[in-house]
Amino acid sequence: MARPSKYSAEFRSDAIALWRASAGRRTFKDVAADLNVNPETLRTWVRDADGALAGGPAPRETHSEVAWLRAENARLLKAEKEWQLEREILRRAAQYFAKEMK
């Protein structure tokens, strides 16, 4: 089992944002020295964040997050069905009135 990180998620995201803001002008080593972290640690954080943005492996969700995501997904699917039904009704109404205009 891996030991927990001594850096908070907020610190990591701030470090990634700092590196991205200075990308091209400063190296991982320079930014990491300012933050007192290992340059490879910072590089790993940035690579993991880029992978998550590119559809890479997502971090593991907690049970409550998974339950919330499932509930939200069900709500969105129900709303989509309602929108599809409304769209079909409007399509049929448009066809009806188009025939009546001819």
Folded structure, characterized:
By secondary structure, the protein is mainly alpha-helical. It folds into two domains: 7-59, Winged helix-like DNA-binding domain superfamily/Winged helix DNA-binding domain (Arc Repressor Mutant, subunit A), CATH 1.10.10.10; 62-102. The protein is built from four helices and no strands. Helix 1 packs across helix 3 and helix 2 (28-35) crosses helix 3. It starts with 8 loop residues before the first helix and ends with a helix. The mean pLDDT is 86.
Entry summary:
This protein folds into two domains: 53 residues, Winged helix-like DNA-binding domain superfamily/Winged helix DNA-binding domain (Arc Repressor Mutant, subunit A), CATH 1.10.10; 41 residues. Helices cover 74% and strands 0% of the residues. Helix 2 packs across helix 3.
Please name the CATH architecture of the largest domain.
Orthogonal Bundle
Describe the global form.
elongated
- What is the class of the largest domain in the CATH system? Mainly Alpha
Distance between the termini: 74 Å
- Based on secondary structure, the structural category is mainly alpha
Explain the layout of strands and helices.
Blueprint: H1 9-21, H2 28-35, H3 39-53, H4 63-101
